[in-house]
TrEMBL record:
Residues 26-146 form the Acyl-coenzyme A oxidase N-terminal domain. Residues 484-663 form the Acyl-CoA oxidase C-terminal domain. Gene3D superfamilies: Acyl-CoA dehydrogenase/oxidase, N-terminal domain (1.10.540.10), Butyryl-CoA Dehydrogenase, subunit A, domain 2 (2.40.110.10), Butyryl-CoA Dehydrogenase, subunit A, domain 3 (1.20.140.10). Residues 288-450 form the Acyl-CoA oxidase C-alpha1 domain. Its main location: other. This is Acyl-coenzyme A oxidase. Pathway: Lipid metabolism; peroxisomal fatty acid beta-oxidation. Keywords: ATP-binding, FAD, Fatty acid metabolism, Flavoprotein, Lipid metabolism, Nucleotide-binding, Oxidoreductase, Peroxisome. Its cofactor is FAD.
Amino acid sequence: MSFLNKEICDGDNPDLTEERRTATFDTDRMAQVIYGSEKFAARRRQITKSISRIPALQDTKPLAFMTREEKITEACRELDVLSDHWEQLIYVNDEEEALHLHREVIGMEGHPFALHETMFIPTLVSQASDEQQEKWLGRARKREIIGCYAQTELGHGSNLRKLETTATYSPSTQEFILHTPTITALKWWPGALGKSSNYAIVMADLVIKNKSYGPHPFIVQLRDEKTHQPLPGITVGDIGPKMAFNGADNGFLGFDHFRIPRGNLLMRHNRVEPDGSYLKPPHAKIGYSSMVKVRSRMAMDQGLFMAQALVIAVRYSAVRRQGFLEDKSQEVKVLDYQTQQHRLFPSIARVYAFIFCGLETIQLYEKLILDVNKNGDTSGMADLHSLTSGLKSVVTHFTGQGIEQARMACGGHGYSMASYISEIYGVAVAGCTYEGENMVMLLQCARALVKAVELVEEGHPEKLSPMMAYLTKPSVTVDLTVGPEAYVKIFQLIAKKQAFKATEQLHKFMVAGDSRDVAWNKSAVELTKASRLHTRLYILKTFIRRVESITDISVKAALTDLLNLHLNYELLDVASYALADGIMSSTQMDFIKNQLYSSLEKIRPNAVSLMDSFQFSDLQLRSVLGRRDGHVYQNLFEWAKSSPLNQSEVLPSVTQYLKPMMEKSKL
Ligand SMILES: CC/C=C\C/C=C\C/C=C\C/C=C\C/C=C\C/C=C/C(=O)SCCNC(=O)CCNC(=O)[C@H](O)C(C)(C)COP(=O)(O)OP(=O)(O)OC[C@H]1O[C@@H](n2cnc3c(N)ncnc32)[C@H](O)[C@@H]1OP(=O)(O)O
Ligand SMILES: Cc1cc2nc3c(=O)[nH]c(=O)nc-3n(C[C@H](O)[C@H](O)[C@H](O)COP(=O)(O)OP(=O)(O)OC[C@H]3O[C@@H](n4cnc5c(N)ncnc54)[C@H](O)[C@@H]3O)c2cc1C
């Protein structure tokens, strides 16, 4: 079956048009699967269309040619235009629509509202009492104030228990006194803190009568609402340029005995009474929920980052012709090379897999917040914490790898800022660090795994959560030809073996006399391996579940090819474990390799449409190389001509230095 996809093909590069004609599915239908519903996929298109009708939002000067200050100013200008059209463009308070709007118009380099939407408002929703929400949430949603999330300090990010900023309660004045006792206690890194925000959620150590209660969230006004000047007692500024994300003003913040009212401690789950008595929360880590919220989004957001890079690389590979295969009269599209397919298609599969996981974890977080806020039920917190800790680490790592391969797949032009892939890479890999450094978070996931293994060893398998149930599965011989379930079984055995081995190693060191912490550190590499396998198993199972649920036959067939590629690629990638433990034979390995190569061939005709289905506009992609029309060479030439360096034939640097130097050399 062959579809001419709905998008207009006329005028596009004929090589791309040909790719779109041969696709076996409808990209609008695929978009429904990617974005979780027909309704949201349609809303995205509608929003994109509405944006295209607002002249002030069309791309002006390319971001690559802008200074940092110009990028920040441009983002603010766009936010101002958006603000004037907000209610016509999206449903007010719809988080997904707001995120789409920002991604499309402002892009990924950061902007003053990035943390306002993703952490400031969510913290108020999850941590502020009803009364506090009444006071601040409405104002935040109406954008009367701009907020950020200030937790990390110069000296501590990972180890939250050692944050040094203090919030000391003064019963006589019913105030908290915020203070930065040392240079390492300066808040450092929070996005949009430096210059844009006038409010912040500040995580500080709550101290009452000389007793420390650990990090708690406070809402703090940083700047005067009229003048935007920092309030007395507050030192705040920008931390300087970064590897990417330079449209954002990540900042520093210090307090000099800065007083805030008692009512500024967010008190949905814990309280400090006027006399200083403390009511503890129903779960010790409930104050960490905003981090879990962002981690639960990361599989989706990182999937979309990698998708952007792959749209660019796949479209370009279908237009770029170099070298010959059978027909010596015409050079081939580089997408026809097996190595190019092997470089790109497994990442396409991962993009889909990550996004399916993201759809699931976003919902899990929303359910958790309902359970906690409405029923005081915190029982889901531990599982979601371990799941999202593993997932953010695995997904960000593979996203970085996938984007870098996408860059290389574009040859020399991939290295140019015209491709925009380097910016996507820089922004995406920040995710390996923010919301918990990947190794640290893999070790959090490992805590849950070790506990589960210990339960099995102690004879209590019935206490395992469903995600851990595979740890009780016996070893079996598996026939891989029966389909995805066989791959799951092998993966389960590999993951189970590693979880038991790592736990055994931990116990061995403890029996030999090491403390649990020291034994843990001596086993940490093995523990992180167990966490990765555990998480990759979850990703694989989610992918299978999602594909099984699809009703559109042609979409399901295309995704089944992608799923088969994923299964074979993943198993091959962890084959060293399986071979070492005798779980798989070398004959099975050969079978997997052959399946992998044949999956590449099956996916080839659909590659461009699998990526077109994300329906990123050219405005959002910001890539000269990856534009929908595929007129790569003309677009590149126009872009290069617009470089500021090309606005004059002879640069001042030549007149001032090179010319005199050459003249001197002649003497
Ligand atoms: C954001 C992206 C959104 C959209 C992108 C779209 C477009 C892009 C455009 C713009 C970009 C937008 C935003 C910019 C991006 C970045 C924002 C970044 C923000 C930040 O980075 S905020 C700071 C984040 N910081 C961290 O993550 C710190 C990591 N450290 C920790 O979380 C804790 O210190 C750690 C490691 C969990 C340890 O905590 P602690 O020492 O207190 O505990 P223990 O290790 O002793 O464990 C005890 C016990 O508690 C359990 N536990 C820990 N945490 C939790 C939890 N959250 N929930 C439930 N349970 C928890 C732990 O498992 C232990 O249990 P056990 O005893 O084993 O049973
Ligand atoms: C782009 C960006 C945006 C950010 N936005 C915000 C924000 O909005 N708000 C905010 O509060 N913060 C923000 N941060 C800060 C971020 O959350 C922290 O940088 C992150 O949590 C890592 O902490 P760290 O810098 O202390 O790393 P460190 O912990 O110092 O990591 C250094 C090394 O030590 C290792 N390590 C540390 N502890 C352990 C351990 N227990 N076991 C094994 N290895 C360990 C790590 O694995 C790593 O290899 C942002 C950071 C970036 C890059």
